[in-house]
Amino acid sequence: MYEFLKFELEEGIATITLNRPDVYNALNDEITFELQDALKKCKKEEEIRVVVLTGEGKAFCSGQDLKASQGKKRSFKDSLDKRYNPIIRAMRNLPKPIICRLNGVAAGAGCSIALASDIIVADKEANLIEVFINIGLVLDSGSSYFLPRLIGTSRAFEMATMARKINGEKAEEWGLVNKAVDKEDLDSAVAEYANYYAKAPTKAVGIIKKMLNRSGYSNLEEMLDYESYSQEIAGSSEDYQEGVNAFLEKRKPDFKGK
After folding, report:
1. Residue 159 near residue 65 (C-beta atoms within 8 A)
2. pLDDT in tens, 98-123
3. Do 69 and 30 meet the contact criterion of CB atoms below 8 Å apart?
4. Predicted model pTM
5. Where are the alpha helices (DSSP H) in the chain?
6. Within the chain, which residues score under 50 in pLDDT?
7. Which residue, of 8, 96, 200, 237, has the fewest CB within 10 Å?
């Protein structure tokens, strides 16, 4: 289906693997458009309840492929508007959870893509690094939005202006990732999250994701109104009725994501 991605679907879990291991999954034009398409597929197909995003080989994603773009005259704005920003928007607007399996370095735009996920499970030895400053560029692909919200302005400034590497263990301490584990435990830790969300009330999870996105630019009054609006939608779902029935019947709910 794809040249530079692997796409697998099993029991409601879609796994998207960036597949250019020889260049540490660096992002060329083709892989960014393939990733956009894969995210559209995840949104469209009802049987997909959760997405796992990872990288093949030793790295998650080393960012823009500078060798592939060398010698090409291109507009940075056009590249972001057509290649990177649609990925970040698709990730944040996907009404399903995205789990980043951070198996190695996430640099530049690769770091941004990791931070755009809903859950990040990292190898303790993996590194998040904002490398833009090393070639005289600034944060892009959403990092200027995610970083200060996750770790505060001072730490975000240090990461952005000094290209400081933050390993998985430190990233968990700072709140950049949800969990950091030993390399041999990475798959089981990711599976624990993925299996939970594959059986969760997906519609409610998607609404919660949208609510939390909105809370970043809303005041309390606006969020109270949006909560009541959203709860009306959640309360009309099949999963709500199943949850109530399961509670009354003292059994585990069998959510269908509807």
Report:
1. no
2. 999 999 999 999 999 999 999 999 99
3. no
4. 0.94
5. 29-44, 66-69, 76-79, 85-93, 109-115, 143-151, 153-162, 168-174, 186-198, 202-215, 220-235, 238-248
6. none
7. 8
